[in-house]
Amino acid sequence: MSIKTFKDLIEEVHEPGICQECGGCVSFCNSIENDVIGFKKTNSHPEYINNEKCLECGICYFICPQTHILDDDLNKIYKFSDFLSMPLGFVEAIYSCQAIDSEFLNYGTDGGVVNSIINYLIEKKFIDGAIVAKTKSPFSREVIVAKSREDLISASGVKLDISPQLDTVQKYHTYISSLPKLRHYKFKKLAFVGTPCQIYTIRCMQNLGIIPSENIEICLGLFCYENFFFDNKKVEKFEKDFKLKFKNIKRINIKEDLIISLKDDSTVYIPFKKLTDYMRQACAVCKDFTNIYADISFGGLGSPNKFTTVITRTKKGKDIVNKALNAGVIKSLKLDANEKKDMIEKITQFSQSKIKRTEKNMKNKLITWKS
Ligand SMILES: Cc1cc2nc3c(=O)[nH]c(=O)nc-3n(C[C@H](O)[C@H](O)[C@H](O)COP(=O)(O)OP(=O)(O)OC[C@H]3O[C@@H](n4cnc5c(N)ncnc54)[C@H](O)[C@@H]3O)c2cc1C
Ligand code: SF4
Ligand code: SF4
Ligand code: SF4
Q1: 97, 308 in Cβ contact below 8 A?
Q2: 1, 18, 81, 285, 365 from 368: Cα distances, Å
Q3: What atom of ligand 1 comes closest to residue 227's alpha carbon?
Q4: Average pLDDT of the chain, as a whole number
Q5: What does the pLDDT look like over 26-77, one tens digit per residue?
Q6: Contact 261, 249 (CB under 8 A)
Q7: Helix (H) and strand (E) counts for the chain?
């Protein structure tokens, strides 16, 4: 059998439009000091830079989240069977938590729990830093390695000031390719905050034992129903469809709807079903809502306002949440069995709806994806 390489990723993943832009292929290939592929400004997915230097090792193909080659291995490690019987993956415990620190809480997307936990891990020297995403504008972020409380506050989602200039070609994403950043941090212990597709790629890399995934000490996974992409035309359409101006957006949150807070203190709730035109195409065939391979998963869904739903999945994840609770870094609502059941039911509904969406899109050949 011939080894599949980046050439096959172009055919099977890029051409059908399902590249999730996680950057995993670039991250590995560039780490072996072999800049065969990379991100160019003209495209959001990676491309060949020096194809004649390709070693045909096939690793990029193995770790791509859209080839699903390592699913069986990962499912065994993370005690997960399949999406139909376990739409939430393995749930060790579920909590509804909030940051104690008022700044993390105020600036946090929901309960400020993710950044509080990272800050605690840095202070205790369990990690050297964390790969997070700093807000540039409401629908645009950049990757940073946060090494301090100040870095984390600056990476929280409230300070949104830049408004798009419609006279130049601009692109806005709620998604960001974070993995290529890793290559610059060899031999560090890092936490990684990411969407399910990114965490999946990291777990594939760790399963194969390839660089630079050894840097990642802990995977903090965000829930993700979908991500959005805007170019100038879409910004104009969005402003018309929802009768608001991008420049007036103060912050966004994604929970059971897209929640947009405007500078005049009003809030607009837009259901996902009205946002199909703005969704990244790769998200149309993605089944994982709750980040099943993370050590700990975080989302707003299921918790009251300004609280974060926290699902622990691994021993490492459980220990970290327990330590953060015992140290008084975060607090947890006291939930009885029925309240936990209600939370799980609500999150399961969204997970199942995401799975159904993928199956429908694949059946209708919206995407010519080979499963
Ligand atoms: C694109 C996206 C889609 C989401 N969809 C849903 C959803 O459908 N339903 C739901 O309940 N929750 C969703 N979430 C999760 C939710 O918005 C919160 O991030 C989560 O509840 C944690 O809140 P917090 O206040 O505890 O985190 P905070 O303490 O505010 O920390 C959030 C951390 O996430 C990092 N971050 C923010 N955006 C990104 C990004 N794009 N990529 C990588 N890291 C990032 C920040 O830098 C920060 O470190 C989504 C998040 C994102 C980024
Ligand atoms: S060298 Fe390996 S990882 Fe890099 S593009 Fe070629 S096959 Fe992919
Ligand atoms: S590994 Fe990620 S960036 Fe590379 S082709 Fe696959 S989805 Fe796209
Ligand atoms: S919906 Fe899936 S593909 Fe899209 S950003 Fe979220 S995890 Fe990645």
Answers
A1: yes
A2: 23, 9, 26, 10, 5
A3: 1
A4: 87
A5: 888 887 766 799 887 667 789 999 999 999 999 999 999 999 999 999 999 9
A6: yes
A7: 11, 15
Q: How many A from CA of 167 to the centre of ligand 4?
A: 29
Task: Determine whether the shortest distance from the Cβ of 229 to ligand 4 is under 6 A.
Answer: no
Give dist(CA 267, CA 252) in Å, integer.
10
Domain boundaries, the chain: 6-363
Which residues have CB under 8 Å from 209's CB, separation 6+?
none
Q: Yes or no: say if 175 and 271 are a contact pair by the CB < 8 Å rule.
A: no
Which residue do the tokens 């990676």 mark? 46
Tokens of 281: 């195409």
**Residue 226 CB–ligand 4 contact under 6 Å:** yes
Q: For the CA atoms of 223, 294, 148, 140, what is the dihedral angle to 10 degrees?
A: -40
Burial class (CB in 10 A: 0-12, 13-18, 19+), 233: exposed
The reply to whether the predicted model has a pTM over 0.85 is: yes
Mutate to test the pocket of ligand 3, among 8, 9, 15, 195 (most ligand atoms within 8 A of CB): 9
Residues with CB under 6 A from ligand 2: 5-6, 28-29, 34, 36-37, 54-60
Asked whether residue 165 carries a pLDDT value surpassing 70, the answer given is no
Is 169 a residue whose pLDDT tops 50?
no
**Across 248-260, average pLDDT:** 88
Q: Is the pLDDT of residue 370 over 70?
A: no
> Which residue, judged by its Cα, is nearest atom 5 of ligand 4?
227
Nearest atom within ligand 1 for CA of residue 134: 47
Ligand 1 site, residue 21, Cβ cutoff 6 A = no
Cα separation, 167 vs 89, in Å, equals 45
| Distance between Cα 5 and ligand 1 center (Å) | 32
